[in-house]
Amino acid sequence: MKWLRGLAGTATASRAFEELLSEHLDALFGTALRLCNGRQADAEDLLQDAALRAFDGFRSLRQEAAGKSWLFTILVRTHLNRIRSARRRPETLASDLDEVAFEEALGTWQPTPNPEELVLSRELRQQIGDAVDGLEADLRSIVHLVDVEGFPQREVARMLEIPEGTVASRLFRARCILRDRLAPTARDYRLWRQQ
Amino acid sequence: MTISCGRARRVLWPDAGPHAVTPETELAERHVAECAECRLFLEEMGRLGRLTHDLAPRPRAPRDVRDRLFKAVARVRTGSPALGRRRAARGVGLAAVLALLAGGALVWGRRVAAPPDRFTGLAEDHMRATRGDGLVSSDSASVSRWLAARLPFAMEVPELPGLRIRGARLCLMDGRRGGVVEYSSEGRPVSYFVVPDGEPAERPPIGELRSAVRAGYHVVTWREPGLVHALVGDLPEATLLGLARLCIQKAMALLTPHM
Question: How confident is the model over A95-148, as pLDDT tens digits?
């Protein structure tokens, strides 16, 4: 709070906002792209909407350390609001699992050859990017926020306004899909553990 | 008391953040210690997450997107007509940006508040630079000769790690003609300015690095007697500061007689 009290002047607050936005701009743009299914024009519109909302509400930010999460929350919720206004969006996916079904799904998981080592290559990066981009929108946003951006699942649940268990079950489903899609690559790169 | 594989995996689900250790957690941990398949499950979930984190592409915001975004924020800041959308934003001039940039000083973390017009002018020149008015060359000697023929002071053209020389141009800061060496770092432009020092009212100590953000670009400046140097770009601040120190070291090395 001390840091914000220091931002006495409007111009100074604007500078501080500009600094915060600039620091996270690439990550916000990447997230907007994934939320908009790779459409750059839509991603830019979304990013601009979110940035203007964030600018309006900048004084509500109380801790500098929370700036990144705060910006991402605004971006994600702006995206959700757009979807909701475009169509009546169901709050749950038809394929979302309740806790019992989630446990059952976890229980039926079978090991396949597992990642043995990471082999960095442009091809592998491309394939992982394609695999993530190929996920359905609600799974893609979870994987991006949790795995790519590194937000805790609890925080992602708050951003998306869904239960933590739903984040976990969607993440599980997304990772199972990624595992299947990466299976040929995994064999090529000997990423999977030999059984 | 036993626990199913599904329940144990749910209780120990990775990446869920801190959680209380309960008798069920301990039971799940004992189960996993004895169940190879559950261990494989937890390993695989972790590996898939790390694989995605490490290797999924992270696109950078293109420069035109960055510029339009900050212009839109500037319009809101200055109360200009609400054209705040990307498509409407196209073609709007720099006036609103300049109005935003003209006010206030940066107070963030450890950064030093510095004369806003100097930073602003540098960021503005970097932002509007076009290649048509200068020299296009990746050869430092050619760039150096080009600048020497046009500037009233000697300007070094340092070769900097991670940066590729792309050319040079001239700039005008408060009526003073300076030189700019243009670099590229993985497609991101970086400008190195040297301009005659014309601000006697506020002169930071020689060699002191000052940093700010203007229009989405980091600006790092420092002085030597009679000249102001600056690096401007959208690289991380720490990278620009490191490059600035290297520029200073190279300049010092030129002044030090060889033994």
Answer: 677 777 777 778 777 665 444 444 445 677 888 889 999 999 999 999 999 999
- A119 φ, ψ (degrees, to nearest 5): -115, 115
Write out chain B residues lying below 8 Å of A71, CB-based: none
A146 lies within 8 A of chain B by CB: yes
Which residue is associated with the tokens 């301009």? B195
Pick the CATH number of B106-255 from 3.40.50.11710, 3.60.10.10, 3.30.450.40, 3.30.200.100: 3.30.200.100
What is the DSSP code string of B106-118? --STTPPP--HHH
Terminal C-alpha separation, chain B: 80
Query: From the CA of A26, how many Å to the nearest CA of chain B?
Result: 5
Every domain range in chain A assigned CATH 1.10.1740.10? 2-86
Q: What is the pTM of this model?
A: 0.58
Residues of chain B with pLDDT under 50: 82-116, 130-132, 259
Cβ pair B44:A21 closer than 8 A: no
CATH number belonging to the domain at A2-86, selected among 3.40.50.2300, 2.40.50.140, 1.50.10.10, 1.10.1740.10: 1.10.1740.10
